[in-house]
Fold this sequence. Notes:
Elements lengths: L5 H13 L7 H9 L2 H14 L44 H64 L4 E5 L2 E6 L2 E6 L9 E9 L6 E6 L7 E5 L6 E10 L12 E4 L2
Antiparallel strand pairs: 1-2, 2-3, 3-6, 4-5, 4-7, 7-8
Helix pairs in contact: 1-2, 1-3
Amino acid sequence: MNGISRDDMMELVxxxxxxxxxxxxxxxxAAFLANDDxxxxxxxxxxxxxxxxxxxxxxxxxxxxxxxxxxxxLARVRxxxxxxxxxxxxxxxxxxxxxxxxxxxxxxxxxAIISTVQVFSLQGQLTQAARRSSVLSTQVAxxxxxxxxxxxxxxxxxxxxxxxxxxxxxxxxxxGDRIYLTLSKLPPLPRGKVYQxxxxxxxxxxxxxxxxxxxNADGVAVVALPVDASKVGAVAVSVxxxxxxxxxxxxxxxxxxxS
Length: 259
């Protein structure tokens, strides 16, 4: 497959079955398994031995670190001359009491300022933590949906009861009401172009637009079509402008009946 030897691919299959293959390489292996009976059989055996479905886990998200207050509030309530001697002034008999009261007042103000700053800082941290928690909850939910979808796709692609249809660029896999394109030989696309899938409903004469997609650097793409396979008579792929088209603007790279 695009310069990768079969031995190398079988090593990737083993890693895939053991659940340690990086996610970005999953499409390459999935397309290889879908179109190679021997590799698929070995994957099933390895997966049974490992007692785990082969899929790449997302890296855990790091905990957000709260910002620490690094600036200190400093107040100088006593002025001392640079020569180290204490300046003497003519002051009344209550000077000591007044001096202590001034110090107490300054300390109280300082504590009040510090407490207020800390309260606002903690409130800001709590608000940020709540926002991060919401974002992380959304990410976790999305990761769970992606994981469930990946497990379903892998189960379908390696299943013995799946129907497989060869095309020049790879294959089409149908299992139950689900359809997958497992393409591994797609040419690079010109700038501003994408591949677009098309489905032909049974009994219809015109195709309906489906997903647009681009292959990876190896020309591999594994696409699950959002359509009920029992209602589809054929699938096709063509090259279209970014954003897709309502009807094919180029000759399809393949048209494959699946009924």
